Task: structure prediction
Amino acid sequence: MWIWVDMDSDRAQKMVALYARKGILVIPVTREQELPPRPVELVVMTPGWDTAFAKYLRETYNVPVLLSLPGASGAEDVPDGYDEVVPCPAQPSYLQKWAVATPTPSADKPPSKAPDTRAHPMEALDRMIESTRRKQTYTQKQQTITFEQPTEDIAKRATIITVAGVKGGVGKSTFSILLASNLHKKGGRTVLVDLDHMGNLARLLGVDPVVNTSRFEVLANTLADSEMEQNMIRTSYGFSLVPKGGTNPQGLSLDGTRRLLYLLSNYADYVILDTHPGRLVSTVEAMIGADVVCAVSGTDRSTWADLRDFFSVTQKPVKIVLNRVREKAAALADMRAILAKETGYPVIGALPEDDTLYAHVQAGERIEGGARLEAAMKGIRNQLFGAPKEDTAPSSPSGGGKKRWFR
Result:
């Protein structure tokens, strides 16, 4: 038996059918909880999973782990954690050369036990990292300072808003900028963070990324405000930016992400995290550590088909924002009701397609929308934090209560 590890359930089913025609049993896995307990002969993974998970599968099943890339030519560098890069789909006859005829479980991790993520989605990754003497990033082979999580429940200052989405191209980055600008105008000390290794916030905001998120791999676990400000960039909008770090598809490490959240939560009033659409370590940790998660989606059903599964890793409130909406009021109302019913998450706002905003983005100018878009953003802000009596002071997040660190 082989397992095909893929976040795209439709593609996974197609691969299962393809290899079934050759008499090969392939089990599709779209999330960690679905890993089969019985012996496995081969693991094939598609992009979007972190290296640590690939290593975990190799150690658990004691079989090769291949990375299947659409359009792969065979000349690609093999990422750490994988045995080879193969095309997608790869010829069954070639994959059979890699398959282990009689796989044997490793002594310390029997394949009869799949990773248990119910208590904490990153538990398996935590165990692997703690068992490694040398802490490394997933972006560079450099030393990473371990983040020493507070042992006591410590009050924090910031409200953390994680902006995430299942699909790329739905406008997460633009929404993150508009939200950061709106919160800054409201009077709060606001920091926008680009956790997407494919992100472009620095370019959109017209700043030179002289610092980046990778710094948080090696910073001290405690910093004064003046030291924090040396690791971010003040934008012309008034809020601060921490640009993306590196270009490796594994993003920021677990230690780096946790340190970034902890340090910024004690510095700012609002921290907005623009994340990668895949389940990278940084994306998962950003959703777990958030006070509220904004799921940005388009009106095309394909952009919200997997929303509930994608956000199942967090217990924090998830609120949906529809972006680039062209539908009329009646059709939009029906869509919002269907989306809320299917996902279980409330739709707190719909941003209209804005030609003014589009023109500004294309021209590399200041990102500002028209009156309708600004009104919609204000409505979303009020849904997140409650409508304030005055528009000049930070308000408490929905639900009230004292914000705590870390979870």
